[in-house]
Design brief:
Radius of gyration: 26 Å
Largest sheet: none
Order of helices and strands: HH
Helix content: 55-70%
Structural class: mainly alpha
Length: 76
């Protein structure tokens, strides 16, 4: 292995490490915001729950308002 390739490898590792640190800082900033004011996270969770409730097929066979009205006609 030559010195130039080793130097390039170290530079790539340094760049990757710095990007990882920046990503961790951004994640921690978001986590801190959620801890300080969880209302946004609660609102997001409520929205996701509503979407899942509408998208999930009903076990009683009833049709939800979001389901399209489709009539299947079997032809023999």
């Amino acid at each position: 292995m030559n010195d130039e390739r080793a130097r390039e490898g170290v530079e790539h590792l340094q760049t990757a490490a710095l990007e990882l640190i920046e990503a961790a800082r951004a994640f921690l900033d978001v986590a801190e915001d959620v801890v300080r004011d969880p209302s946004e996270l609660v609102a997001l969770a409520e929205t996701v729950a509503r979407v899942v409730a509408v998208a999930r097929p009903r076990s009683d066979g009833a049709r939800s308002a979001a389901e399209p009205r489709v009539q299947r006609i079997h032809v023999s």
